[in-house]
Every structure is written in structure tokens, then in C-alpha cells.
Write a structure and sequence with these properties.
This protein is mainly α. Helices cover 87% and strands 0% of the residues.
């Protein structure tokens, strides 16, 4: 009975790792699509979101069934509960990648494919800060690495500062015509979505810390 439980638990673990790789690919492609203003790549991200959503539902169902059949306690229950929450964070990150991709398609339709170089450089820098947070979150889960999980979130302040710089440059370098307002809004949203990807990645790291340590203080002390 115990052997069956751990076999099914390992299967769920592998499913989460696979879902994480799908989300990681979506984030990387959405950022690349934005930088290159590549509508075809953006559409690929949008189309791939269904598979991420299906993974979310499948893993959640497996967790429910496993809990009902084996009634785990202590560490195993904490692990299953954490997985149920982690996949929600992953699903949200996938949605954020889709949102960025939809912005790419909107800008492409409006033929607003080129950004001020300084603003684009700042967005690229944001992406370069956010991607390692996601990578670290996924690696900490896969390897059950409490030290790596505890290091996540160190770039939060820098991401916030870059976002403020983008806002300042957008609102001082564009006239306030209706067309410009729409354009500025899309860029502001893209920067916000990048920031949220980083936040959700840190949330995953907190959950990893929790199921490994059993200490609820990780949700209050920050990471």
C-alpha cells in the first residue's frame, strides 16, 4: 500500500516538472515574441496554453484521488497540498505569458512594432531578471533544494525600480493622443505581467520552503 502511494506521488511529481517546463517555454517564447514583435511566436504561446491548463486539472485530480485513497499525514500531506497550490501558480504564470503574447499581437495589428530603444532595453532587463526567478523556482522544486528556494526574490526591488523607470520614460516621451494612450497602456501592462511572473515564481519558492521545512513562517518573513 505504501509502495503504491509513493509510486503515484512520484508520478505526480514528474507531472509537475513537465508542467513547469511547458510554462517555462511559454514565458521564454512570450518574452522573445515581445522583443522581436513576432506575432507567429506569440500565437504559439497562446495555442500552447490549453496544454498547461489541462496539466493543471489533471494534477489536481490526481492529488485529490491520492489523498482520498491513502489519507496521507504529516510531510506527505504537506507535500500534496503544496503541489495543489504550486500548479495554480504555474497556471497563472502561463496565463501571464499568454497576456504578453496578446499584447504582441495587438501591437502587430496596429503596426506599432518598434519601441524606443531605452524602453525596450529596460523590458529586456526585466525579462532577464524574471527568467532566473522562474528557473530557480522550478529547479528548487525538482531537486527539493531548500537553499535555492530561500534565495528567490532577491531581484524584486530591482524589477520594481525598472518598472518605475519604464513608466517615467513612457509618460514623458509620448504625446497623449488616443493612439499613444493605447500604446502606452499595452507597454505598461507588459511590464506588469513580467513583474507578476517574478512574483508568482517567488510564491512557488515559498511553497517549496514550506513543504521541505514545515515552517509556516516562510509566508510571513519573505524569502
Amino acid at each position: 500500500m505504501r509502495e503504491t502511494f509513493h509510486h503515484k506521488l512520484e508520478e505526480i511529481n514528474e507531472d509537475v516538472i513537465l508542467m513547469g517546463s511547458l510554462v517555462q517555454e511559454a514565458v521564454y517564447n512570450s518574452i522573445e515574441a515581445f522583443i522581436e514583435m513576432n506575432a507567429d511566436l506569440a500565437q504559439k504561446v497562446i495555442d500552447g496554453d490549453e496544454k498547461i491548463n489541462e496539466s493543471d486539472i489533471s494534477i489536481e485530480e490526481k492529488c485529490i484521488v491520492l489523498q482520498a485513497e491513502h489519507q496521507p499525514v504529516a510531510k506527505d500531506l504537506r507535500y500534496l497540498h503544496s503541489i495543489s497550490i504550486i500548479i495554480k501558480y504555474l497556471e497563472r504564470i502561463g496565463d501571464l505569458a499568454v497576456n504578453i503574447s496578446k499584447i504582441v499581437k495587438r501591437l502587430a495589428r496596429e503596426k506599432r512594432k518598434y519601441l524606443d530603444r531605452e524602453i525596450m532595453d529596460l523590458l529586456i532587463e526585466m525579462g532577464n531578471l524574471v527568467k532566473p526567478e522562474l528557473n530557480g523556482a522550478l529547479e528548487s522544486f525538482k531537486n527539493k533544494d531548500i537553499k535555492l528556494a530561500s534565495k528567490l526574490g532577491k531581484s524584486d526591488d530591482m524589477v520594481d525600480e525598472i518598472q518605475k523607470m519604464i513608466f517615467r520614460k513612457l509618460f514623458t516621451s509620448h504625446k497623449c493622443s488616443e493612439e499613444d494612450i493605447k500604446f502606452i497602456t499595452n507597454i505598461v501592462l507588459a511590464s506588469r505581467y513580467l513583474e507578476r511572473i517574478g512574483d508568482q515564481s517567488v510564491n512557488i519558492g515559498q511553497r517549496v520552503l514550506y513543504f521541505l521545512s514545515g515552517d509556516y513562517k516562510v509566508f510571513h518573513n519573505g524569502v
